[in-house]
Amino acid sequence: MSVVATHLLGRSETKQSDKNITVEDETLKRLLINSFCVNSDALLVYKALDGKDEFNAESVSGVEYEQKGNRTECALLALAKRWKCDYEEVRRRIPVAASVPFNSAWK
Question: Is 0.90 surpassed by the pTM of this model?
Answer without folding.
Answer: no
